[in-house]
Design brief:
It contains ten helices and nine strands. The chain is an alpha+beta fold. It has a single domain, classed as Coproporphyrinogen III oxidase, aerobic (oxygen-dependent coproporphyrinogen oxidase), CATH 3.40.1500.10. The strands form two sheets. The chain has a seven-stranded antiparallel β-sheet with strand order 1-2-3-4-5-6-9. A two-stranded antiparallel ribbon has the order 7-8. α3 runs antiparallel to α6. The radius of gyration is 19 Å and the shape is globular. The two termini are 34 Å apart. The mean pLDDT is 91.
Length: 307
């Protein structure tokens, strides 16, 4: 059972602290502090509440790094949220979370996404219904097996105290979710993903989510520290731009978080900060066999057991 006032405040405080810790660490890594953009919904808008966006564009290492915290409420769940819980359609809601996407400039350094969130559905005279969601996933442009294993092992270890079944279950969910059905290919090498999670009760569910969020920096920073000085040229940047097109396609066509935000009247600037600063498309392009670009398709995008 959730005490919506007390428990929401506890989650909110942790999320805000998580955003600050990650933003400070990334600013130190880049050499450029992330700017702060605090915002509030205007009176009379579809949603109530506000949030804070920490953003870096054209930094020393990151071409774009965005970390958003939001805490908004509305009078009716949008279709993307009630699709798997039709019995909750029409309920009011509060949704809060931290979501980040980091786009390094160096093509040998992967893009990464992480999200942790709580949604509470409310109805007068009935107990609130809650669920958590989130996870993290890695999108390399040039694959390195050591990096993939490290990322997945950190994800596995973050979940291990809460059940041996969670990592295999959430990894499969991630592999299935971050998949471009219209391309028949994965977005990246996955990680973990979960949604509608509440089965152990509020306290244990929240503890698991905190473990995932707190593991992010250890999952990602060692990878980019190792790859940040790898030389690259125009050909590698062109391939990165091409693969970033796949990232755009997934976010706009398949991503539930993007759809939830847009359908609920969310702040477009915050929702779409996950997009890469540049992307390109080529007609019927295929990499040359035996190249590092081809290895991404043959050795990394197909589902593998990395941990």
């Amino acid at each position: 059972m959730i005490d919506s006032t007390h428990d929401s405040a506890t989650v909110r405080a942790w999320l805000q602290g998580l955003q600050t810790r990650i933003a400070d660490a990334l600013g130190a890594f880049d050499g450029t502090p992330l700017a702060t953009d605090e915002w509030q919904r205007a009176p009379g808008e579809k949603l109530r509440g506000g949030g804070c966006t920490r953003i870096l564009e054209n930094g020393g290492f990151f071409e774009r790094a965005g970390i958003g915290f939001s805490d908004v409420a509305g009078d009716a769940l949008p279709p993307s949220a009630s699709a798997v819980r039709p019995q909750l359609a029409g309920r009011g809601f509060e949704a809060m979370g931290v979501s980040l996407v980091l786009h390094p400039r160096n093509p040998y350094c992967p893009t990464v996404h992480m999200n942790v969130r709580l949604l509470v559905a409310t109805k007068a005279g009935e107990p609130p219904v809650f669920w958590f969601g989130g996870g993290m996933d890695l999108t390399p442009y040039y694959g390195f097996e050591d990096d993939a294993r490290h990322f997945h092992r950190v994800c596995r270890d973050a979940l291990a105290p809460y059940g041996d079944d969670l990592y295999p279950r959430f990894k499969r969910w991630c592999d299935d979710y971050f998949f471009l059905k219209h391309r028949n290919e994965a977005r990246g090498i996955g990680g973990i993903f979960f949604d509608d999670f509440s089965e152990p009760g509020f306290e244990k569910s929240f503890a698991m989510v905190k473990s995932v969020g707190d593991a992010f920096l250890n999952a990602y920073l060692p990878i980019v520290e190792k790859r940040r000085d790898t030389p690259y040229g125009d050909a590698e940047r062109a391939f990165q731009s091409y693969r970033r097109g796949r990232y755009v396609e997934f976010n706009l066509v398949w991503d539930r978080g993007t759809l939830f935000g847009l359908q609920s009247g969310g702040r477009s600037e915050s929702i779409l900060m996950s997009m890469p600063p540049g992307a390109s498309w080529r007609y019927d392009w295929q990499p040359q066999p035996g190249t590092p670009e081809a290895r991404l398709y043959t050795d990394f995008l197909p589902v593998r057991d990395w941990a």
